[in-house]
Design goal:
The chain is of the alpha+beta class. It is built from 17 helices and 29 strands. Helix 8 runs parallel beside helix 16, helix 11 packs parallel to helix 12 and helix 14 packs across helix 16.
């Protein structure tokens, strides 16, 4: 058997169009809530209206008497669940209310309108208890956890920070605060579930249906082979769909109870309480340098909060262990458990929040030392990763800073703050660095060759809008040495070979390596054949468990640099972003079209983080106030006239066969700090509390 025909050129690296683009543009792409099996019912959850306490009565009889209502589930009659590794999924199992918005009942009806109306009208009696919604800073129950999110040690110390900081020629000591942030994907968290002869099928809006299947198997006492979870098209997640959320458990419970298919889409005002959020943080950063601006001492100390349901510690101090030379270092996390909703993953957890504080402090240090902010960062490039001592597999932050400065025209900048004024507008520019770790998870995939010369690659990857189908086809085409249009990719179902979730900027690296391995094995099998392909074709499998579980001798990270220009209206306090530019070093870019989309998407999210997005926790009632897109303001295209993403050609042989790093999250990491630094340059006043809304700026602006 001869090898497959040679492809006309490398597919990976080309500007291939998204494979699902036409489906999405024409509405043929089906999302979790758009599957309606025959006889499908609709469910609506009932959130608690107290901050803490017990449910004493659920007046289900009043609602069950309504036409069209099929069931009202509560802790009194809901199906019993098995042990949940994630206690936020232990739903309707007891009468406890750990925070406002916790689900206490579920109404199932014949239409979504009837279900929602009945859920709104369901009377629930409570025995309220005293609650504690913070604030976290200075709280008497603050403690130091063993680990922060991601398994990072909560505390790391090197050298003698206190002495080195006290002896430093230049010192910065500043505290930065952020409110809670919410993911708000375009597609709601939704599930459609039904049972057939004891087997369970679910369409779920999830970043990883393999994980959802495993969790459902434990909760409902099923073998995994009896569960199929499909997440074929997912309209964004940003971390909030990274693990199973309440809607999938409630939909399955309702389908089990009623014996009918059940569909459940969470209302947007519910999301702040039940699908996670970026926790608010208070971050103190201290940096001490010698007379030349070289860092001798660096401390990053984080205070944050979690819920009484589950510990989740935003790992905001971790980036300080990677970024700059720091022979004497202290990085710590402290947390308090409050009667509030549980925080969870949100795009670049830890890095986005931590780098805002660190890079703002670096800008303050540039002012204190009299150095240009770009030059200060260049002077503090480490030879090895400061925390671990490992060599970097590649580190091109300096190149990103220099290239970004060239493209942005940084050398023409007047460093004096508050001097560029045109009429009623002050103009300023700022810079910040970015980093995100290279992560890899075990994955499997199969590759199949058919007698007609086509190929099918199968694995349970999830495309959350990033273009995963397209990039995986490009990787496969190169490994098979076949034309791109001869390769079909099947993803998004737990019936396919197991693959990790789309998260941590690890999807393409993890899935792509398994695809590459399966396709390489297939080429070897085809080359060993002496005759034509059998009618059933030939299949090969790839498994990267061994490689993914090995500890690398290298510190592997992506890096980037953000440059921003803003205009501040002195009459209204409004900040307008006139230019935002990013330059990234993220290994080999496999598809420029989809990569640019990822970079600018993250940067746009960073604009919201800096200027418009904020969520107030009502401490008296224990819930978030801004719970919809009318009050929680996300940026839109009109909010930034010029948005550019560029990247370096980075060759890193210590990653995977494709040479790729993650790109989904690094775009947000440095954006908020670059904008905050630009605002300082514009007005001459340093504000350290995000978001930089007009009410915070107005008291500091000239007439």
């Amino acid at each position: 058997m001869s090898l497959p025909p040679t492809s006309p050129g490398p597919a990976a690296g080309s500007d291939a169009v998204r494979r699902e683009a036409r489906q999405k543009a024409t509405g043929r792409a089906r999302y979790a809530a758009e599957h309606t099996p025959p006889g499908c019912l609709h469910a609506a959850p009932v959130p608690a209206t107290i901050a803490r306490g017990r449910v004493t009565a659920v007046h289900a009889d009043e609602i069950l008497a309504r036409p069209g209502v099929h069931a009202v589930l509560s802790h009194e009659d809901a199906p019993r669940l098995g042990d949940a590794d994630d206690p936020t999924l232990a739903l309707l199992q007891d009468d406890r209310v750990p925070h406002r918005g916790w689900y206490v009942a579920l109404v199932v009806a014949d239409t979504p309108e009837n279900a929602r109306a009945a859920a709104d009208d369901l009377r629930v009696d409570y025995a309220p208890e005293e609650h504690d919604a913070g604030p976290a800073e200075g709280h008497p129950r603050l403690y130091t956890p063993e680990k922060a999110n991601g398994g990072y040690p909560a505390v790391r110390e090197r050298g003698d920070f206190d002495t080195a900081f006290a002896d430093s020629a230049v010192r910065v000591d500043a505290t930065y605060t952020m409110t809670a942030l919410h993911n708000h994907p375009m597609e709601p968290h939704a599930s459609t579930a039904w049972w057939t002869d004891g087997d369970l099928t679910v369409h779920d809006s999830s970043q990883g249906s393999t994980t959802v299947r495993g969790v459902l198997a434990r909760l409902f006492g099923l073998a995994e082979r009896r569960i199929t979870v499909d997440s074929v098209h997912v309209g964004g997640g940003f971390g909030s769909k990274g693990t199973p959320r309440p809607q999938v458990v409630l939909a399955v419970m309702a389908a089990l109870h009623t014996g009918r298919p059940v569909k459940l889409a969470l209302p947007r005002p519910h999301l702040a309480a039940v699908v996670g959020h970026r926790a608010p943080t208070v971050q103190r950063v201290r940096i001490g340098t010698d007379a030349h601006g070289v860092i001798r001492a660096l401390a990053h100390e984080v205070t944050t909060q979690t819920s009484t349901v589950k510990e989740f510690v935003e790992q905001a101090a971790v980036p300080a262990r990677t970024m700059y030379t720091s022979p004497h270092s202290r990085t710590t996390h402290r947390v308090v458990a409050l009667d509030v909703p549980t925080p969870s993953w949100m795009r670049a957890p830890g890095e986005a929040s931590g780098m805002y504080a660190l890079e703002s402090a670096m800008d303050e240090l540039a002012v204190a030392t009299g150095l240009d902010p770009v030059e200060l960062r260049l002077r503090n490039e480490p030879d090895t990763e400061p925390d671990s001592g490992r060599p970097f597999s590649s580190r091109n932050l300096a190149a990103c800073l220099r290239e970004g400065a060239r493209r942005f025209g940084w050398e023409d900048r007047d460093p004096r703050p508050g001097v560029r004024r045109s009429g009623g507008r002050l103009t300023g520019t700022g810079v910040a660095a970015a980093t995100y770790p290279y992560l890899l998870s075990p994955s499997t995939a199969t590759a199949h060759a058919a007698p007609d010369g086509t190929y099918v690659v199968r694995l349970n990857a999830t495309d959350i809008g990033t273009g995963a189908r397209t990039v995986l086809a490009q990787i496969a085409a190169d490994a098979l040495r076949a034309p791109l249009d001869a390769v079909r990719v099947e993803i998004g179902s737990s019936a396919l070979p197991d693959a990790p979730l789309a998260g941590g900027s690890s999807g393409t690296s993890s899935w792509g390596w398994a695809v590459h391995r399966a396709c390489t094995a297939l080429v070897e099998r085809l080359g060993a054949l002496s005759g034509p392909l059998p009618p059933e074709g030939v299949t090969a499998r790839g498994d990267t468990s061994e490689e993914a579980e090995k500890k690398s001798p290298y510190a592997r990270h992506a890096f980037g640099a953000h440059f921003a220009e803003v205009e501040v209206d002195t009459a209204t306090g409004e900040v307008r972003v006139s230019r935002l530019l990013g330059v990234f070093a993220a290994g080999r870019i496999l598809n420029p079209r989809t990569a640019r989309s990822q970079f600018i998407g993250g940067m746009t999210m960073g604009i919201g983080m800096a200027l418009t997005e904020g969520s107030t926790l009502d401490r008296e009632f224990g819930g978030f106030v801004e719970r919809d897109l009318a009050s929680y303001h996300v940026p839109v295209s009109a909010d930034v006239p010029s948005l550019e993403a560029h990247w370096l050609d980075e060759d890193d042989p210590h990653l995977n066969p494709m040479g790729s790093k993650g790109i989904g999250e690094i775009g947000i990491v440095g954006t908020a700090a670059a904008l905050a630094n630009a605002v300082h340059h514009a007005v001459g006043v340093r504000l350290r509390n995000l978001p930089l809304t007009p009410d915070r700026l107005l008291p500091h602006l000239p007439d």
